[in-house]
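lol forgot to send this yesterday, sorry. struct tokens for the thing we talked abt
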């Protein structure tokens, strides 16, 4: 019969093994959940991005051997006025999309946060374009923007004798795309703002009303400061999505008329799958990546100055 001390050590050893086994099992279970995501990210995101980075310094048409080209691809695309123009058009599109989408989403959220009859129906109706097929959205809006379409007929009816050409006009094509993009995405960001509005304590508004604050003062002094975290998220997502917009532009205009609506993502597509120049396409993609990365870093650095986490 073993001494008591030995028996105690034996039980402690068994308990430690059980704990190690349980910890190992929990670790394996956790890894089994996240491993598919990491595998998918590695295969479909990380590897293509690294390959694109390599191609940005090479010449390749997809068929012949890859040749090292140094900085020639970057020099070539910056010599291309279409690429330089695409940078300006992307910024133009993104700035106005972010500004007006944010204002429209916030305005709708504030309106539909009120106790209105049938507000649930209106919320669903405004959110519906976000989940609608981009192909369907582009088709419908192309019809609406036609020279003899409903929009121009309405403008003519109210006294505008020379309505815009919209997607057929080089001056109006980007404003038309901005309108459609705002209409499609504002429902999602309205939901974001609605969730944030419903988290604001009613006691703050009641205290402000007791102090004599009007509706405008309550909005400026309570609502907007309390919404800054959500606004930061909205601005971040809108900026990223606007700079990499492709499907809507491709389906509505294909970068036309001419190159009037050719943005950076469209230029990348054209160089890769029409010109079969994967080197220049990858170089343009790297420039787009750097622009988005720099804007993201800038926004995070500015976050502390205006975002209030109360």
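and heres what i got for the seq, position by position
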């Amino acid at each position: 019969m073993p001494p008591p001390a030995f028996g105690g050590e034996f039980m402690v050893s068994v308990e430690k093994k059980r704990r190690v086994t349980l910890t190992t099992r929990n670790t394996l279970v956790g890894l089994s959940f996240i491993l598919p995501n990491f595998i998918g990210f590695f295969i479909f995101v990380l590897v293509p991005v690294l390959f694109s980075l390599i191609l940005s310094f090479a010449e390749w048409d997809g068929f012949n051997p890859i040749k090292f080209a140094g900085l020639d691809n970057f020099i070539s695309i910056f010599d291309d006025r279409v690429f330089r123009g695409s940078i300006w058009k992307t910024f133009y599109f993104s700035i106005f999309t972010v500004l007006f989408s944010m204002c429209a989403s916030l305005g709708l959220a504030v309106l539909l946060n009120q106790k209105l009859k049938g507000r649930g129906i209106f919320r669903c109706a405004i959110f519906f374009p976000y989940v609608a097929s981009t192909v369907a959205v582009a088709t419908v809006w192309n019809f609406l923007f036609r020279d003899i379409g409903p929009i121009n007929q309405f403008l003519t009816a109210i006294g505008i004798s020379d309505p815009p050409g919209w997607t057929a006009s080089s001056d109006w094509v980007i404003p038309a795309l901005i309108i459609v993009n705002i209409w499609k995405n504002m429902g999602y960001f309205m939901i974001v703002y609605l969730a944030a509005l419903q988290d604001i304590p009613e006691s703050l508004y009641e205290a402000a009303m007791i102090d004599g604050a009007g509706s405008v003062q309550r909005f400026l002094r309570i609502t907007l400061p309390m919404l800054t975290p959500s606004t930061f998220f909205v601005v971040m997502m809108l900026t990223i999505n606007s700079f990499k917009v492709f499907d809507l532009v491709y389906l509505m205009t294909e970068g036309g008329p001419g190159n009037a609506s050719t943005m950076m993502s469209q230029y990348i597509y054209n160089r890769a799958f029409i010109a079969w120049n994967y080197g220049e396409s990858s170089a343009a993609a790297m420039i787009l990546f750097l622009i988005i990365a720099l804007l993201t870093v800038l926004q995070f650095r500015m976050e502390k100055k205006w975002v209030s986490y109360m």
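The two ends are 65 Å apart (CA to CA). anyway ping me if u want another try
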